[in-house]
Amino acid sequence: MHIVAKQLMKTFGTFQATKQVSFEIEKGRLIGLLGPSGGGKTTILRMLAGLEQPDSGEIWFHGKKVNDLPPQERGIGFVFQNYALFRHMSVYDNIAFGLTVQKRGKQEIKARVTELIELTGLKGLEKRLPHQLSGGQRQRVAFARAIAPEPQLLLLDEPFAAIDAKVRKELRTWLKDMINRVGITTIFVTHDQEEAVEVADQIMIIHQGTLEQQGAPIDIYQRPQTPFVAGFIGESNSLEHITRFKGFEQAELREAKAIIRPEFVEVGYASEISFPSASEPGTVKNVYFRGTNWQIEVELAGQTIFAYRSLEQEALKPGDRVQVLIHRVYLFNEQEHRTVE
Ligand code: ATP
């Protein structure tokens, strides 16, 4: 389903849960709504579902304004973290529920439920009750139940939050694969950046009721448009007075904040060939082993900066005099953002 949201605003009492949020989602996309707790993600989902009315703004599905359509007429399926299955109904009956409500024929219901049981890997568990299933199996039943009536949009609110880490990782891959197969436009809420980056083909970063950025995970990571996004996604250093550093003398942006990812910082001994003149002297403060590389904390012109160093290179030690080479900086001020390399 093609979705357009125009300037959605929602206030609870005096608190603005969303402030003029606008976005467009193409049909078939798998979107991750990502951001810290309380930012407004669930409120956006509930407005799309029709469970919450925006104070102002418009929602369009397939070129049709749906603000006045009740939830059951919006063609939506849901899976919520605590949206429990019907406790006294079998797996089969849970999945069949929406189809029964729609008064579909008995044969049709049987065919569709059987197909979904296959698709979601629940064969053999049809007669079980929810309490006889694992958390992961329950979420798969919830997913099958949500897509059974062939919704045009699937909304998932923290669908894996209550599941332990290992199963959660499996379910993510499973979900991505499943959604690709069934081809439903899907929006899921998460506050876990790893989950969003791994599952979604597009991410929307929501912070304090505002949509900070929308794009493919790689674009969000490589081209953050706000300081919040730069700090929230991936690791980052914050540096003042970037123009004092060699190669960045021209990086003028009035009262700018500079954010640098550790992977864009090289650190090593002056004798190492990769250090041309455009590097700054610094002192190693700490060295941390990260499994795949070293994280080096360096003191540089009175500031602290983190860099990575490969395990194949000579190990650095606290107190070592080193050279630091910065490859890419994100600059932000109130009006603008710029990437300097
Ligand atoms: P979380 O990850 O914790 O679910 P979220 O980003 O989904 O957070 P929302 O649930 O949309 O955030 O909530 C945004 C803000 O609106 C929160 O401060 C919340 O307390 C407030 N809020 C949400 N629903 C209501 C309500 N019905 N009445 C009053 N305040 C509400």
From TrEMBL:
Sequence ranges assigned to domain ABC transporter in this UniProt record: 3-233
Name by which UniProt lists this protein: Sulfate/thiosulfate import ATP-binding protein CysA
A GO MF term: ATP binding
Gene3D superfamilies cross-referenced by the UniProt entry: P-loop containing nucleotide triphosphate hydrolases
InterPro entries, sorted: AAA+_ATPase, ABC_SmlMolc_Importer, ABC_transporter-like_ATP-bd, ABC_transporter-like_CS, Mo/tungstate-bd_C_term_dom, P-loop_NTPase, Sulph_transpt1, Transp-assoc_OB_typ2
Organism per entry: Paenibacillus konkukensis
Organism domain of life: Bacteria
UniProt entry keywords in alphabetical sequence: ATP-binding, Nucleotide-binding, Sulfate transport, Translocase, Transport
SUPFAM superfamilies on file: MOP-like (SSF50331), P-loop containing nucleoside triphosphate hydrolases (SSF52540)
